[in-house]
Structure formats: C-alpha cells, structure tokens
C-alpha cells in the first residue's frame, strides 16, 4: 500500500487554516440562524421511587414552512434524542443510556382535525380540531423515563444531553438509495446539557 505523507510544515499550515476557518465562520453561522430557531425550554429532572424522569418543551417548533406542510396533510415527525452519561473521574464519559422518541402530527382536511401520535406515551393517537392543542402535544415532553434509579450511584456525577429534530426531508425515491445512510432533517435544535449529582 502506497501512503503519501505530507511534510510536517504542511500539516501545521492545514491545522492553522482549519482553526481560522472555524473562528471565522462560526459567528457568521450564528448570525445566520433565524431568530425563530427552535429551542428547548423548561428542562426539568425529577424522579419517582424507581425512575429518573425528564420534562422539557420545544419553542418556535412550528415555522410557517412546517405549518404549511402539516396543513397540506403531510405526516410530520418530531424526533427527540436523550442520552445519559456518567461523568467525572475520567476524561471519557460513560454512556448509561440513549433514547430516541418520535411524535407525529397529521391533518385531515376533510374532518378538519389533527391526529398526534406519541407511541412513547400514549398507545392510541390523540385527535383534536384545535391546532394549538395539537401543537402542545407535539412540543411537550413529560414524564419520560430516562433510566431506572438502580442504574445510578449515589454521589456520582451525571450528564443528560438533549436534542430535537423537526420534520424529516422527503427525498425522491431514487435518491433514497443513494443517501441511504444519511438522515435529512429540516430543522433541529442545538444540543442541551444538564449536569447533576445523584
């Protein structure tokens, strides 16, 4: 196998160029974010006798583009990622659990009603004629079990990371094979991190 190695100075130049590009582009990307970019709010942790629970909401989730998509009768999913890590005592965090849950909303223009499915919470889909009520169902996560308390150790430090992705981009049928391993989402929140000691 023939492996070409770059001179040491070339690697240094590439490294410094990379740092410059990151510092130059990051503020521009931040400013480019829409002020209505979705954010996670009211993030709270709680516990029952047996489980660690999480609560949070998504604000600015329904952009005009997403509302139009829903009103056109297109099934629209919201995906939520929640990960729990044990931190401290080591430079490498240990993943305790990782959860992906999804809620979907679909509008029936004939019946003029919204159907919201939350398989992680309710077995049967919820139906309403109120868009505001359907929006609340889609954007509010409550009583979600992150992990059993038996997975945690008293006095140890932990970290929960949360992110939401809103509406999957539908590709033409032929392209689905080309981009089979790639996930396309219209909008997503930043990662949110909560540190706590059990």
From TrEMBL:
Pfam families: DUF4390. InterPro entries: DUF4390 (IPR025500). It comes from the Bacteria. This is DUF4390 domain-containing protein.
